[in-house]
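Can't paste images in this forum, so I'm doing it all in text. The chain is below; anyone willing to post the predicted structure tokens underneath?
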Amino acid sequence: MPQHSLSKQVTLTLEHYFDTLQEETPSDLYEMVIQQVEKPLIEFVLAKTDRNQSQSAQILGINRNTLRKKMQKYDLI
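Text version of the structure:
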């Protein structure tokens, strides 16, 4: 299986998404994509740090309070 960059994977997924829409018009596409990427990213980093929020926030490059808000948003707390 060929390796693709993350941006290429996103593009391929979006192409598939638009192909399956048929006549529907997409809405809130930006928020949908962000949520689909952000939640597994946070879950992955939390798992790698044994759920250490300070270390996870540092790896993600965000404030620990921001991480906690995102964890609440995605029901990860």
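Residues 20 and 33 are 16 Å apart (CA to CA). The chain has a mean pLDDT of 94.
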